[in-house]
């Protein structure tokens, strides 16, 4: 209750009636979905996030129990939480993974096509970055062989945080070398 005024709970309607079909609910909540897309400034992969919000709305619609809460508030918080979890997962994935092919570094440096490079040339370019032994281990195992940071840590008897430090310093040196 706010200032003596009772707020009426919005429900799907009469409890004895069945709930409206999902397409009607979707059309009512479509502006809410787009407001979240705008609020969270999701300009990249916008279609993907819209679809994620639609899935969240469908789950909220199918899971809602009309006896305990109003559907609009439930749907709003369900969609917001679902989108926030998806954004967090995407950001974490982007921070933890570097999506490059081994020859990409060489291509950035010289402008040759992929077919013009051998692994020895890629190795020479990596040597020019003057990586330490551990940084080179990370480059070889993570970028060239596709091993995870956890696997690298296990093989070398160090913590995953240590491998992350190797990654950070290796990428810093590689960026410096390729930006020359």
UniProtKB/TrEMBL annotation:
Transmembrane segments: none annotated. GO terms for molecular function: DNA-binding transcription factor activity. It comes from the Bacteria. GO terms for biological process: DNA-templated transcription initiation. This is Sigma-70 family RNA polymerase sigma factor. It comes from Alteribacter lacisalsi.
């Amino acid at each position: 209750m706010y200032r003596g005024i009772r707020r009426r709970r919005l429900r799907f309607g009469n409890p004895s009636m069945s709930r409206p079909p999902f397409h009607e609910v979707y059309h009512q909540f479509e502006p809410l979905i787009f407001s979240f897309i705008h609020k969270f400034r999701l300009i990249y992969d916008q279609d993907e996030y819209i679809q994620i919000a639609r899935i969240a709305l469908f789950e909220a619609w199918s899971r809602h129990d009309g006896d305990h809460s109003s559907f609009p508030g439930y749907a709003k918080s369900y969609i917001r939480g679902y989108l926030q979890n998806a954004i967090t997962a995407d950001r974490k994935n982007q921070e933890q993974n570097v999506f490059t092919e081994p020859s990409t570094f060489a291509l950035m440096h010289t402008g040759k096509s992929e077919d013009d490079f051998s692994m020895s040339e890629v190795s020479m370019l990596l040597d020019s970055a003057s990586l330490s032994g551990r940084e080179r281990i990370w480059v070889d195992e993570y970028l060239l062989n596709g091993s995870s940071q956890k696997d690298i840590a296990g093989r070398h008897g160090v913590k995953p945080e240590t491998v992350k430090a190797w990654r950070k310093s290796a990428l810093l040196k590689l960026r410096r070398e390729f930006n020359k």
